[in-house]
Amino acid sequence: MAKVHVSMTVNGEAVEGLTEPRTLLIHFIREQLLLTGAHIGCETSHCGACTLDMDGMSVKSCTLFAVQAQGAHITTIEGVASADGTLSALQEGFRMMHGLQCGFCTPGMILRAHRLLQETPDPTEAEIRFGISGNICRCTGYQNIVKAIQYAAAKINGVPFQEAAE
Ligand code: FES
Ligand code: FES
Q1: Which of 137, 145, 146 to mutate to test the pocket of ligand 2 (most atoms within 8 A of CB)?
Q2: Measuring CA to CA, which residue among 56, 61, 69 is closest to residue 6?
Q3: pTM for the whole thing?
Q4: I need a surface site. Which of 34, 60, 127, 153 has the fewest CB within 10 A?
Q5: Confidence band (pLDDT; 50, 70, 90) for 147?
Q6: Half-sphere exposure (Cβ direction) of 77: Cα atoms closer than 13 Å
Q7: Tell me: the pLDDT tens digits for 93-107?
Q8: Are 128 and 116 spatial neighbours (Cβ–Cβ below 8 Å)?
Q9: Is 94 found in the same domain as 67?
Q10: What's the domain range around 99?
Q11: How many angstroms does the Cα of residue 53 sit away from the middle of ligand 1?
Q12: Residue 18 near residue 3 (C-beta atoms within 8 A)
């Protein structure tokens, strides 16, 4: 199949490549750009493991072709921490609140939570749970993921984090 040229900005860097029109964005990101933080779970838009941030939206990158990302600005989990390695508030929250076990869902969960906090900087617990409802975690039971996002929201908003009583 003839390949087409695609270019986009990923984690602040211009990237380009040749890809078949049928290639999914997640495969382009993992196999051509070698950014393997985004995971492939279901490949049918259900699990959210492949979630990336693209042009101000959370996208499931198994549901887009790479050619649909032509000219887009994309953030992957590799671009979330600062250049000096300082963790983002969300990464710190997941670490501090034990928001992961196997970690398979975590890159997608953090990218989704990133966009959620952009859209709703001080979310209620219900808003967090609804906001991550497209991302499945088979390990944690979600409670600590919610706490991790609450931790990050508090840090970003400059207020003390108060863990809700269970
Ligand atoms: Fe994309 Fe599951 S791998 S939603
Ligand atoms: Fe294992 Fe979420 S930590 S799937």
Answers
A1: 137
A2: 69
A3: 0.96
A4: 34
A5: very high
A6: 24
A7: 999 999 999 999 999
A8: yes
A9: no
A10: 89-156
A11: 14
A12: yes
Using alpha carbons, list the distances in angstroms from residue 142 to 42, 77, 157.
19, 20, 22
User: Looking at the domain assignment, is residue 58 inside a domain?
Assistant: yes
Of ligand 2's listed atoms, the one at least distance from the Cα of 100 is: 3
Q: Is the pLDDT of residue 166 over 90?
A: no
The rounded distance, in Å, linking the Cα atoms of 127 and 50 is 21
105-128 exposure pattern, b = at least 16 Cβ within 10 A, e = fewer: bbbbbbbbbbbbbeeeeebeeeeb
Exposed, middle or buried: residue 166 (CB in 10 Å: 0-12, 13-18, 19+)? Answer: exposed
- The answer to whether residue 151 scores a pLDDT higher than 80 is yes
**127 falls in which pLDDT band (50, 70, 90)?**
very high
Is any ligand 1 atom within 6 A of the Cβ of residue 138?
A: no
DSSP letter at 57?
Answer: E
Which uninterrupted H or E stretch holds 27?
helix 25-27
We report the CATH number of the domain holding residue 14 as 3.10.20.30
